[in-house]
Amino acid sequence: MAFTTGRNICRLGNIIILALLFLTAASCTKDQAGGGGMDTDEAVVRLTIRTPGVTAPRGGMTRTGVDQYGIGNIKVVVLEQKSGGSYLYKYMVDGQNVQPGENNKTTFYALLKASAVPIKLLIFANYGEAFEAYSPAAGETEESIRSAVVAAFDPEANFIPMYSEISLPGLDTGRSSTLSATMLRAWARVDVSARLDPALSKDFRISELYVYRGRNSVQAAPDASALSPSATPRVDAPSVPAGADTLEKYGIHTFDPVNAQGLCLAECDPVFDEAQKLKGTACIVVGGYYDLDTEPSYYRIDFDSGQPGHPYGQVLRNYRYSFLVTKVTGRGWDDPDDAANNRSTTIVTEIQMWEDFTTEMIANGDNYLGISSRALYLPYKKDAEKELHVQASVPYTVNFENSPSEVIGLGDTGSLRDDHFEVRIVNYPGDEDDVSHIIITTLDDNLTPDNFESRLVVRYASWTFDIAVTQYHFKEFVSRSIRVLSVHAGSSGNLGGMTTVGDGASMRRVLSNANNFSVSGTVDFFSGFDFTVSPGMDYFRYADGSNSYTHQVRSWLFACDVLYLANDNYISEYSARIIMEWLEASPSRVLIMGGDGDQTSPTLIRQDMNGPFSGDVDWWYNRIAASSYKLDYINDSGGFYSVPINSANSEFFTGGPFPTGGNAINFKVADNYFGYAKSYTDDIIPLITHSNLAGSMVVGVDKGRRVVYHGDASLWQTAQMSSTAEYSGTVSTDVDRFWANLWAWVAYQVIWADQQAAY
Question: Could you read off the pLDDT of 260-288 as tens digits, one per residue?
Answer without folding.
Answer: 567 889 999 998 888 888 888 999 999 99
